[in-house]
Design a protein that fits this description.
Blueprint: H1 7-11, H2 15-37, H3 40-56, H4 67-85, H5 105-123, H6 126-137, H7 142-149, H8 153-175, H9 178-185
Helix pairs in contact: 2-3, 2-4, 2-6, 3-4, 4-7, 5-8, 6-8, 8-9
Length: about 190
């Protein structure tokens, strides 16, 4: 379904059309907010706020970027704003590390690797963690990350390079020689 075809319907007041947009992108928006805020409760609140902001500014969507990139940008900036507002509060990292029970060794190993990567990403600044996640997990291009974050292309490239180095340092401290293998598995 082409989400952009729903925009005129939404702008004319069709709430079911906007509900379809929310259903389609809810997980993505929540994931972006959670990567920045590292708290389920805060991410849920920021997700709701991001959808409200997107609805309020839908008429300004001009189609220059993909709709998902435009929405990523709103979600990212909303989460950063929430993070600034909640800086005094400590966020829980416990809910980032949900580990399903694995019956196979390969699945257990993947879960362990994801756990270590999640833990290492949590040690990075929210901005570094988000940029790495956007690039490697969400497979956004540098240009799309520029649109999402509002940073310049060279700044994104530098931050991406530095964040990779920091991530490797964190993994090396925790895992030693296994860190390199872990990164190769997730490359």
């Amino acid at each position: 379904m082409d989400i952009t075809a729903l925009i005129p319907l939404i702008l004319s007041g069709d709430s079911r059309a906007y509900a379809e947009v929310v259903r389609t992108y809810e997980h993505m928006v929540y994931t972006v907010c959670h990567r920045v805020l590292r708290s389920t409760e805060d991410a849920e609140e920021a997700t709701q706020d991001a959808f409200v902001k997107a609805y309020q500014h839908l008429a300004s969507y001009n189609g220059q970027a993909k709709f998902s990139t435009w929405l990523y940008s709103i979600a990212y900036r909303t989460a950063v704003s929430h993070g600034r507002n909640r800086r005094m509060e400590s966020s829980s990292l416990d809910d980032m590390h949900h580990h399903p029970k694995a019956e196979h060794v390969d699945e257990l190993r993947r879960n362990e690797a994801a756990h270590h990567l999640g833990k290492a990403l949590a040690c990075l600044s929210p901005e570094d963690s988000a940029i790495l996640s956007f690039f490697h997990l969400d497979e956004l291009s540098v240009e799309e990350i520029v649109t999402v974050t509002g940073l310049g292309a060279s700044n994104v490239k530098v931050k991406l390079h530095r964040a990779r180095k920091k991530l490797l340092e964190v993994l090396n401290k925790e895992l030693g020689a296994e860190a390199h293998d872990l990164l190769l598995e997730h490359a």
